[in-house]
Amino acid sequence: MNKIGFNVLAWTAAVSDDLFPVIDRLKKIGYDGVEFYLGAPDAAAYKRMGDYTRDLGLETTTVMTMGKDDNPISESVTVREKALDKIKWGVDRAHDLNAKIICGPFHSAHTVFVNRPAVDQEYALAGEVLNAAAAYAAQANIVFALEALNRFECYLCNTMEQLLKLVKAADHPNVRAMFDTHHSNIEEKSYASALDTIGPVLAHVHISENDRGTPGEGQVLWDNAFSSLAKINYQGWLTIEAFSRNDPDFANAIGVWREFSDPWDIAEKGYKFIREMSQKHNL
């Protein structure tokens, strides 16, 4: 059975000792691992969290985003250099957490648009930065699982077809892809065709409801999603990513303006839901 994880962004974007009680409870629910956002500046906190989760017997994964000042597809060489430095910093923090995956849309700046579709040159620029960063990540056996976002958050990669193009542009075995049920619910024609496209390079999956609340209580076509994952013989993390307004600064940054579900409701019901769907579809 695939491992089940939970992204603590449902509570906070921070990495700190204050999360220890949350981690303890996620372990008791049955989760195999927890996912952290690589954004908190206190480097020492990542090492403490890595030690804590390891001692509990939990694995870790991570997620990362970029902004306009460190955009990998910027026309500015200086900005792209900052992007590379930031991703390398993220690799170091993931290593502190004992994580082997950095997922997310760190191929380009989140919610930064140029009023036109993406062009080949931008895929090439992203590929160049990601290739260099992946060479650094490979030293720690860390894999990049790049994410396609919906059209309201990103213009470089909205679909698995575009994401595959980007992975090929990066041209490094440590650069792979992830699949998010929330974004794909908006952008793809079907889960089956999308997963067939990205299957050969798929390294991570986010289980996320259409409203970012409790999986199984919204409109995502879950039977299609799980059966399609089983068809491509996906073997990796099934990690719940859901959001709340517990961390107002982060919530404001990603456009979360209301509560979707209580985080513990998401964690407890979501874990049960993933187990049931995985068993139903032999995933």
Automatic annotation (TrEMBL):
It comes from the Bacteria. PANTHER family: HYDROXYPYRUVATE ISOMERASE, INOSOSE DEHYDRATASE. It holds the Pfam family AP_endonuc_2. Residues 23-258 form the Xylose isomerase-like TIM barrel domain. This is D-psicose/D-tagatose/L-ribulose 3-epimerase.
